[in-house]
Each structure stands twice: as C-alpha cells, then as structure tokens.
Amino acid sequence: xxxxxxxxxxxxxxxxxxxxxxxxxxxxxxxxxxxxxxxxxxxxxxxxxxxxxxxxxxxxxxxxxxxxxxxxxxxxxxxxxxxxxxxxxxxxxxxxxxxxxxxxxxxxxxxxxxxxxxxxxxxxxxxxxxxxxxxxxxxxxxxxxxxxxxxxxxxxxxxxxxxxxxxxxxxxxxxxxxxxxxxxxxxxxxxxxxxxxxxxxxxxxxxxxxxxxxxxxxxxxxxxxxxxxxxxxxxxxxxxxxxxxxxxxxxxxxxxxxxxxxxxxxxxxxxxxxxxxxxxxxxxxxxxxxxxxxxxxxxxxxxxxxxxxxxxxxxxxxxxx
Length: 321
Description:
Elements lengths: L1 E2 L6 E2 L17 E2 L6 E2 L42 E6 L6 H8 L6 E3 L6 E6 L8 H7 L6 E4 L2 E3 L1 H5 L1 H9 L4 H4 L31 E3 L6 E3 L1 H12 L10 H10 L3 E2 L7 E6 L8 E7 L2 E12 L5 H5 L13
Antiparallel strand pairs: 1-2, 3-4, 5-7, 5-8, 6-7, 8-9, 10-11, 11-12, 13-15, 14-15
C-alpha cells in the first residue's frame, strides 16, 4: 500500500492515479518547505529532509448540497370548484390519487413529499367527486376553492349526505318533498329549506294583519330571504330546483283570510304579541273566550290546488293525493 501525496489516502501500489482524489501518482512531489521536486515514491524531501506528507486516512468527500427547485403553483381557476390536497402518509392517499386522476383536470405540482394535487369541476358535476372526498375524509390539509376563492369545506359539500339519503330512499322522486315524514311535507322540493307546510311551521307567521277582520298578508320578501339563507349550503345539490322554489313563492297567496277561505286556518298563539297579534272573541257553549292569532296556515292539502294551478312545473302526484 502507498499514500497519495495529495489527499493522504491509502491506495494500492499498482495504481497510477488516486481513486479517491484523481491525483497523478507519477508526478514529482513538491516539498512544501523548499519547493524541491522529489521522486513520486519519496516520503522525505531529498533536499531538506522535510516529511512530504503525513500518513492520514483519506478525508471523506463532502456531499453535494441539494438545490431546492422552486415549485410554481398557479392560482386556482376562476370558474368552478377546485379541490386541492398535498402528499399524505394516510393509508387512503394512493386511493385518493387514483380517484383524482379520473378527472381530466387533474394536475400535480412538485414531486414526492412536496407534491400538491388539484382537480377542478363545474358546479353541476360536483357530486362526481364523492369517491375522492371519501378518501380525503379526516384530512387536515385539504382545501376547496369556489370560483378561485378559498371556501369552507362543509359549506360546499354539505349537501352530500342529504342527496345520498334521497338516492337510497323508498321513492327518491318524492323524498325532497317530505314523502317519508309528514312533518317535513313541503312543495319547495327541498327538506333543507326548513319551511314545511304544516301548521306548526314558523314561517306562516312571517307577515302582518291588514285589518281586524282576519286578512293576513304574507311577507314574501322575508320568506324569500329565509329560503336563501337556509338553502345556501345546499345550493350545489343536483336535486334542488331554484326555479320551482321561486314559482311556489310567487304562487303563494299574497293575502289570506281563513274566515273566507276554508283551505286555510288561523294560527292560535298563547297571548298578545304586539302589533302582530289579532285578538278575536269566540263563543263556546254560551261562554265568550278571547283567542289570539299570529298568522295563518294551510288546513289540509286543499290549498295546494290553487298553488299548483299557478306554477309551470308539475308537482309530484302524492302531494295532491
């Protein structure tokens, strides 16, 4: 074995070049003290006796530093719903990638653990992402954008559970009208409106008494506002029909007097409630009793004929049954 005069690495005698640093072992060894050119196999300077190198182990080569390549991620599309998620150690990660790649809009930015994945869909095809969302369930680092603006996850996808309940119901075409629960019966065509057509619904108190003879005027602006507020998080549901909702609201009578229209009845309350309460005296078995009304509500389903005759869309058959 011999020592490389350049890096002090131990190498075989037969080597002409150092395999560690590439030094030419046939070149003269220059003395660092007197600059005398010594024979390649010299250990001490032939001129001044100075040791030409110390017998040290070769120093390990320094690792090359990795160059960080900047990943350029474009802004989310300004149209549609964008779902974005990063690399994850979750067991469902590979399945999520598989589902995401089914979309033509699939994009990947970066590699390995720094990768970011993204798809974009139109609002009317949002339900197609249900399998992807199932694999992203519980992930902290997942993001959704609506028309380029960051949005709250549940505000976009909240309709999923209700729509899936509709698809698995006994009669899906009737489900949204409250077919399976009389308390949820409605002609808006959406359970999530929270405004059923039963006598206990609060929205029948949205209005005012026009006079003391029982003419009730619905406040349609407030009803419209409440509908919009309740349905906002379900606006992307494939089953929702905003045109039907608007037509039903327009067909709802502006003024109703249950004393004249037997399809409606007064809503009795427990006491006087400011200007929105109508006081009425009734005789029962010769005794006079004072009752208070704070609105009107349908009496059965006969009122539906007047509404269905004034809308273009045909209501489900069970509604008029």
